[in-house]
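Re: export button greyed out
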Amino acid sequence: ILNVEQSPQSLHVQEGDSTNFTCSFPSSNFYALHWYRWETAKSPEALFVMTLNGDEKKKGRISATLNTKEGYSYLYIKGSQPEDSATYLCAPGAYSGAGSYQLTFGKGTKLSVIP
Amino acid sequence: DTGVSQDPRHKITKRGQNVTFRCDPISEHNRLYWYRQTLGQGPEFLTYFQNEAQLEKSRLLSDRFSAERPKGSFSTLEIQRTEQGDSAMYLCASSLGSPSDYGYTFGSGTRLTVV
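Workaround output, generated via the alternate export path:
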């Protein structure tokens, strides 16, 4: 069982501010690191999947990095907008002995962007 | 195809009643997962289907829980003799092939409240 920590738990920023969150997890025994964005009343939306140490992915104003050796990932949002308000979940994924690919989620970082 | 659909969106039930939730995955997706998110926690794995076969169940899935996926299409999750501790968001996700490269596609979830 992986212990996944996300910080901060919640965050309020002004529109236009840049921000970042941290996800830490055991550095061994996972296949890929997933980031999801979950807006209220919607389904969790996949943002990034990263596997290699030093991986860096970008999607618009959002980017993420992965350090597999020390077991952490950062998510960055540049110039936050109100529509970025959501809970951001990270989850290392691993195959179980029975062959299913399971995500172990952190508790998430809840971002509120104030107009 | 509009993605993964879950029904109902909300369910309020009295303790001791049985409830059933439905998940319609993306039509060509052969893998289907159920997760549960309780208050203040990240989603936790419950069970996994590949086509119609239930290949893995979490220890979280007590004897009161049963899941099916007849014909490898939609899936149902039934909870018998509900308890207040069953109150949670139940999420369904599907994937085509290995989700380790692209992650899952989640539905919007069914929020269960047991009173």
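The CA atoms of residues 30 and 94 of chain A lie 5 Å apart. The button fix ships in the next patch.
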